[in-house]
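dumping these here so i dont lose them again. two proteins, back to back, each one seq then structure tokens. dont judge the mess
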Amino acid sequence: MTTVLISAGDVSGDHHAAGLVRVLRARHRDWRVLGLAGREMRAAGVERVADQADLAVGGLLEIAGSLGRLLHAWRAMDDAIERAQPDLVVLVDSGGFNIPLARRVRRRSRARVLYYVAPQIWAWRRGRIRKLARRVDRMALIFPFEADVYAGTGLRVDFVGHPLVDELAELARRLDGPAARKQLGLPAAGRVVTLLPGSRRNEIDCQLPVQLETARQLHAMEPEVQFVLAVADSIEAEQVRRHLAAAALPAALRLHVHSGRAREAMLAADVSLAKPGTVTTELMLLDRPMVVMGRAHPLTAALLRRFLRVPWLAMPNLIAGQAIVPERMQQEARPDVLAKALYDLFAGPVRDAQLAALAQARGRLGPGGAAESVARIAEEMLGRD
């Protein structure tokens, strides 16, 4: 029996991996698939070795409080490599966890290693590129600019396109902005801003207070605007409640909190305030304007500034090769600055220019079919048709 071990360390990785698993299981019902899995991978039929929620933390210094959970997930995956002896290991994003895991695979099994959704080592810590090339047999890249990063390493890379292209095109066909507003209990008329603070616990602590204060200041500028706070499934409600209580927003400010409804919240919005990451690609594919902000522990931010090798963090900017969406990081992510940037995107030439640039960048993500392409690569690596 063919055995595939998959490691997806965050919510977006769990989502992309689940799409791949559905294709593989439809074509090879006798294959065993197990791994580091979240809710979507388990729903797709993956045997859970470790829980993706244990890795729901990001940053450098921020992981200290989650070391116990991280070690538990590591030991579980290490044991699975030894016991299951997989034929293929598929690593999905999460380079901090998966690059060391690739080394363990090399040492403890004969499995081929496929990396789907490359870690963003092109942004910083470029010294890991050759290390990755030694530990991985093949890479399936989702951004067109990534291929040049691995030139000269001998690593075989394939640009498969972004896995969200098909999915979000289908969503946009069946759900438009007015329908999304109706589902979320929002009025059909009036301006709506969606707050997207992230899917990791430390991101909520860093981003949400700033986003809530931004909402307060934007409300003062435009009292009729309504806000949607999109909370990821990986975040506990109590953590969000604490921040809402601390913010003490005015009673007249209408804030709708929804868990697990991020895409409906994006479609419902005139403009969104988002942290860097996959969510910025989702907004671009859904043709929704955005402002991108980020806060991290000061020491983490200082280290990132020292090693960062790209001029932007928002994916639309990296794909376009220019700043097409506003980015405000650390001290620049001030609520007054963010509120003004959001206000400017409600209507007029600033909004029109961003939408046109997003449409052009969107075309660079490929025609779709990423999961099917990666499934074919997996079959080639295993010598299967």
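---- next one ----
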Amino acid sequence: MKLNGITDNPGAKKSRVRVGRGIGSGCGKTGGRGVKGQKARSGVRVKGFEGGQMPLYRRLPKRGFWNPFSKDYNEVNLGRVQAAIDASKLDAKAPVTIEALVAAGVCAKPRDGVRILGAGELKAKLAFEVAGASKSAVAAIEAAGGSITILAAATEATA
């Protein structure tokens, strides 16, 4: 075999269609764009245009509000924490923090912290260091002999 003898399989390479190159090419005159009008021209974007009528996205009222200071917490139930301890993914002697929960696979990513919720049963004596917890979760943790520390929200220092 020689380098000058290597070729593509038949039909593997298609030549590009040269539009607007005369009637003999089969794609001449208008070049596949139909006839006249705005969309026959280059650089046209008509998404949402309704022929001069007020478009739907402007007829409907604006609604809602996005709070830029809102926090996005991971919500974890006590039953899920107990399941991670039973599967020995979480160390019962070490404090339960967001880093430990991410390492154990209970949470996918840290976000703004973790909030413990009271669903499920907790048997292990654990020390939680979390951003928040429900009243039922605090009661269940203390009933199991554990402790919970609510971390203060990290505020950015202005210089």
